[in-house]
Amino acid sequence: MGMGRALAVAMVGLNGHIVEVEADIGQTLPNFVLLGLPDASLKEATERIKAAAQNSGIPLSRRKITVNLVPASLPKRGSAFDLAIVMAALEAAGDVRRTGRTVFIAELGLDGRLRPVRGVLPAVMAGVRAGFEEFVVAAANAREATLVPGAKVRGYASLAEVAVDFDADPHELVLDLPDRDAAPPDPGPPGPGAPPPDLADVAGQPEARLALEIAAAGGHHLMMVGPPGAGKTMLAERLPGLLPDLGDAEAMEVTAIHSLDGGATAVGGLIRRPPYERPHHSASAVSIIGGGSGIPRPGAASRAHRGVLFLDEAPEYDRRVLDALRQPLESGELVLHRSAGTASYPARFQLVLAANPCPCGKSAGKGTECTCTAMARRRYFGRLSGPLLDRVDIQLHVNRVSLAELSGTGVRESTAQVAVRVAQARARQLDRLAGHGMSNNAEVSGRLLRGAFRLAAADTALLDRALDIGALTARGYDRVLRLAWTVADLGGHDRPTRDDVGLALTMRQRGMGS
Known about the structure:
This protein is α/β, with parallel strands linked by helices. Helices cover 36% and strands 17% of the residues. A 5-stranded parallel beta sheet has the order 11-14-17-10-18. The protein has a 4-stranded mixed beta sheet with strand order 1-2-4-3. The protein has a 3-stranded parallel beta sheet with strand order 5-8-9, with helices on both faces.
């Protein structure tokens, strides 16, 4: 008897770290000691592992087993270390051959089954980045793990099957476990499912439809203020349908986040469509930004990465929740600090805010039926801080739908028709920005806007005037320029014209109080 070693992955946010699991069998009384900064759920693994090995026909040594998780200073949590720990212990006892550079990621059941764990996709990605190719996972996680290029994945239903492949004596193993946890057969491509919301369902609202198209084409943030029933929620729900499919790198990022946040449910394939998150206005900062005890977990903002985060009834949210979005709106990343460690998650989403014009919602138009005091209106919109609104590119007032618009029989453009123009505008942006490491106009830096993409003074005269009189901040100035480039891309122009800049400025200033 001697030392055994196996490899696992510790996740800190979306960043994975290879962990070497060392097992030593001593010559003292039976005991199982787990070292290396394990959390409570990982400490419970000792009894789970002993029962799984016993019920698989390969009981662990009756002497003292000491397991060390290296590096010892890295916090480790969860049940994904189970398989690596038992393989290291079996190797130390001489029951299996050396595992070499194989990485083990699975939870053990008491009967020896391998159970799926969350975060397999980012764990395998971390292993591949660290130079490892061989991975052993639960059968239910195998399909998800194979999404990572360069990974050679083997999925197993039980510990006994893994032990056989690593040269354990098959005559002593329990190999006839029921296969209810095995990976389901590949169902092939998904069926048609429910049709997505169509823009053709929205009555009237030509300005809002144009604003939605511009937001989709350039990746811009949007705020809509209007009376109840004007169609704000309908418009927001149709924004994801206008966005193009995610590229390979983007889809891998999004799928990794949902793998980490999705419990034990395995991801069936790459998520190609932009995600859509719509948290309730009573949601806490932790549920939207992320956090929790131990290593912080992703929230709705990170789950909406490369997609849309829609906050309906925005003034009803806690102001601290809204202001916490200011950092990711600028950087596209959330860095969460907790006593157990620091985790960073990507959060480059499109923010869509919707609000009534006042608490009762009746101050639109003449506002004769509004019962709100001036103080109530100020307090209502006071939750939307100036710095937050300054980061919202398009601020639009949505008017009440008239009877003529509601009952009109004219042809309304569908989502598919508008999505074609959005895709063409995105293609122009990608051609122009690819050399600068950007993909859409919302990502263009101020340095580029005042450098390679600088517009003629005659074209920005209105914008310059707005900045001079204090109607725009420097940040707002840049955001209007980005909007102008998107308007130009939709119009097929090589550079924004004076009219494009004027339309962009109008879209910026038609929100509250307009």
